[in-house]
Every structure is written in structure tokens, then in C-alpha cells.
Amino acid sequence: YLIVVVFFFFFFKQKTAYEIGVRLVGSEMCIRDRYNILVCDDDKEIVEAIDIYLSQEGYHILKAYDGVEALNILEKEKVNLLILDVMMPKLDGIRATLKIRETNSVPIIILSAKSEDSDKILGLNIGADDYVTKPFNPLEPVSYTHLTLPTKRIV
Fold it and tell me: What is the edge-to-edge ordering of all strands in the sheet holding 130-133?
């Protein structure tokens, strides 16, 4: 009897929402196509925090800690969204954005401690799709991600 119960448990076990990239919104289900989001910041704690929140939403997170590493990942992986810091070693976010825009139209959200209007305008003029200033609420990148990447809805 126990063997039969165990067999049915494993055979009919349903995947969790996290495993299939599904989240509930009211009475609807939203399925994320396992979008790849590249998070690039030299502050590893920020990268980990964004990873935690976006992974819970069903996104697959790629991590980089400087602009050069981000460019290398973009060459090798299909990236649907890039969240990028400005002040980083090796290659800063402004130069990385300029380099990316030469060949790639991936949406870019800049995260920066630079909060002057001129910094925001520069970031947007060089090709960023949005600009978020630090410190920020960890749910802000989640909201911007939802706005940037489409969601399929099943009613």
C-alpha cells in the first residue's frame, strides 16, 4: 500500500510555480518564458538581492560584476534584459552601454548612485531604456522588468 502511495505521489507530483516560471495574478496565471536577465554590478550584494527577487518571479538570472564580463556574457547567451550599474571597474556602465548598442538592442535598465538629472539624461541618450537611482527599493527592478518583458496570460 505504501509503495502505491509513493508511486502516485512522484508520478502525479505537480511542479511548483517557481519550477515552471508561473505566478498567480488574481484569477489569472502568468507564464514567463524563462527570460534571461543579466544583472551587472560590482556590488555583489546588490546582484544577489536582485537575483532573489527576480528568481522568485520565474526569471533566469545571469550575473556579471564588471562591464567586460557583461559584454562576454552578451556574446555567449541570449539575454532578454540587462540591468547595469554605471560605476564599475574595467569598463563602466556608460561605455558598456555604448558598446552594446553598436550591435544589440537588448533593453537596458541602468542602476546608478549618480542621481543628477544630467546623469539620467546621459544614460537615456546613450541607449538605456530606463534609469533607476540607488538606493532603491528591491522591488523596483521587478516592476521595471514586468514593464519591459511581456507576459503570457492564461485565464
Answer: 60-64, 36-40, 81-85, 108-112, 130-133
